[in-house]
Amino acid sequence: MDVFTLKKDSLQDFLSTLSAAYQLWAPLQKDGDTLFEPVLDCRNNLPDLDHQAKIIKHAIFPQTEPLFSYDQNDQIQAPGFGDMKQAVLFGVRPCDARSLTLLDQVFAGDVPDPYYMSRRDKAILIGIACTDPFANCFCTSVGGTPCGREGLDLLCTDLGNRYLVAVLSEKGKEIINKASSLFTAAPAEDIKRGAELAQNAERGIRRHIDLAGVTDTLGKIFEHPVWKKMTLKCIGCGICTYTCPTCYCFDIQDEPMAKKRGRRVRVWDSCMYKEYTLHASGHNPRPTRIERLKNRIYHKFKFNVDTHGAFGCVGCGRCITLCPVNEDIIENLLAVKGAA
Amino acid sequence: MSIQKLKDEAARALGRKDVKYLIGYKKGSYGFRVSPAFIEPKEDVDQLIMSPLCNMSLVKYVMMEEALPSLTEQAKKPSKIAIVARGCDSRAINLLLEEKGVPREKLYIIGVSCTGAIDQRKIEARFPQVTEPAEVTEENGNYIINVNGQVHTVPKEELLADLCKLCRYPTPVIYDKLIGDKLPTKPFHYDEIKAFEALPLEERLAFWQQQFTKCVRCYACRNVCPLCYSTICSLESLTPQWLRRSVDTSENFMFQIIRTFHLAGRCIGCGECERVCPMNLPLMKLNRKLAQDAKLLFGYDSGTDPKAKPLLTTFHSEDPQDFIL
């Protein structure tokens, strides 16, 4: 495996090269927030690698996706995927890269979803190692690590005035080749430093929970009073699910358009909403916030394990950080364990 | 304000036969966060805290109480909820009483005089990545912040939530028990709204377009609002579907206009919508514009008088009419 060094002074040139050849995405500062967005001007708006981007999955799985449009004569127009540009996602955190491998289990399984695949196949992921994890990161509790490589094509580690860049796939190699003059072979001491930082980073994770046996426990406590107790403060908004990199639920809707046309769209949905399980009859099998919050935890820590063999959570901590009422999934899971 | 007084008062409330539980604040799970506390046995009142970090309104929880499974079970339970309410929260309660959204008998209000709450974003930017529980007290215009065993002194002005700087009713306007001193009511001003209104239309439109493009429609602003309590929300209506589920600038405009207009002459200015927004939309700019109009046109100050009639349900012959075409 090749490992290179990229001077921080050269980052702008590297990104410019990328944005000329690819659709470039990166975490960018916008009104004081860090949002994962297409890079329009990499000369004046360098990626913000110090903060966690609020949402990242929309780069591959957009919130609103038109599936096709139609008119009154049954003339259907579906999007063509052939001319879609390859995309480079820069500044992806290792947990977020892992989350895409979890989304793959849903969208790239036996019947691949062409809309998802059109972006996924064409996406190249350049990761940034979390040498200084965020307050609510708990990736190590769900099988990840802050400098993990799963799902990435390149992994950059910050070494002060330069990045250590590990090539992890053929796609990654292709990227390096596009700007080969900017990269030099990494000296042994840089590689050693990178390994040390990765080890330290694990120690830098401040939040932990031992999840051994939690799936079995969930199998036994569906009717336990603990669910009501942990739900009391939930306000039933969609922040946790919309910012979650592994939540993929969607709704499909037909919408009228101008000139007697209509379109079918796929939009994110949230199991925290009343409408999510509302039946046409008016019956709702998840009538209160209690059943909804319970479902979110069951999905991530039981159903996903039963179906795909892995937790549906990568420990990015967004749901904890962004919850306005301190609904904390680590506390919730501790309560689940306590109910065993 | 003495925390012991609050705990004593809470224990007294929970000792009443007609109070089923109390909603207050307790330490959050990490860093600077606080959590709503739902306390039933009075021995648990020791969890209660009251500090400048208590920045959330608890009034919504009164309105979202999940119905108990059967009426018989409901009938067995005592009826009152005790709630810790700051100035803004008490105004929300007042408005709910005005609208008959909640009966007065259902509430036992422990009012707390409030000198303003810390903006979570400001303190977390100042002290990033704090996981250990931190403590903050207020002394002589400073916040004394105890984080990871170190004590920092930060001028209050730097961390105080912007909306708290505009607060006019720091002392609750309705309560069963008041804790803390009565603080003076402050004058009314909407300078920042007037300044924004003075901008050219194109500039204002561009501003809101940029803001609403960011909205992801998590509905946190609606869900947290103590005054959004319709059992069937127009945003969820399917026949007709007033709002498309597609998330784009145009639909987001529609959503925010519906949300804001439902608060016309109602918003009491607690700023919860703005606090919870994951995309940091300046929603109070809209709400305060309507509050300003209610005040300037009708002299109506929402939530300050439980005996008042809701503004938009009343008509007086002297009401201004020059805006009617």
Derived structural class of chain A: alpha+beta
Note the gap between the termini of chain B: 52 Å
Give me the oligomer status: heterodimer
DSSP E strands of chain A, number: 12
Unreliable spans of chain A are none
Helix content of chain B: 25-40%
Percentage of residues assigned to helices of chain A: 25-40%
Alpha-beta classification of chain B? alpha/beta
What is the count of helical runs of chain A?
11
- Relative strand content of chain A: 15-25%
Number of helices of chain B: 13
Order of helices and strands of chain B: HEEEHHEHEHEEEHHEHHHHHH
Largest sheet of chain A: 8 strands, mixed
Instruction: Report the principal-axis shape of chain A.
Output: globular
Mean pLDDT of chain A: 95
> In the residues of chain B, how many domains can be counted?
2
Principal-axes geometry of chain B comes out as globular
Number of DSSP strand runs of chain B: 9
Unreliable sequence segments of chain B: none
Can you give a write-up of this model?
The complex is a heterodimer of chains A (340) and B (325). Chain A is of the alpha+beta class. Chain A folds into 2 domains: 3-204, no CATH class; 214-338, no CATH class. Chain A has helices at 11-21, 94-107, 114-120, 170-178, 188-204, 214-218, 226-231, 239-243, 289-308, 318-322, 329-338, and strands spanning 3-7, 23-30, 33-38, 64-71, 76-77, 87-92, 123-128, 154-158, 162-167, 183-185, 250-256, 261-268. In chain A, the strands form 2 sheets. An 8-stranded mixed sheet of chain A has the order 3-2-6-7-8-9-1-10, sandwiched between helices. Chain A has a 4-stranded antiparallel sheet with strand order 5-4-12-11, with no helix packed on it. In chain A, strand 2 and strand 3 (33-38) form a beta hairpin. The longest helix of chain A has 20 residues, at 289-308. Chain A is globular and about 65 Å long. Chain B has 325 residues and is α/β, with parallel strands linked by helices. Chain B has 2 domains: 3-179, no CATH class; 191-313, no CATH class. Chain B is 34% helix and 15% strand. Chain B has helices at 3-15, 59-63, 71-76, 87-98, 120-126, 156-159, 162-165, 191-197, 201-214, 220-224, 249-261, 272-276, 284-298, and strands spanning 19-27, 34-39, 48-49, 80-85, 107-112, 135-139, 142-147, 150-155, 177-179. The mean pLDDT of chain B is 92. Chains A and B meet through helix 8, strand 11 and strand 12 of A and strand 2 and helix 10 of B.
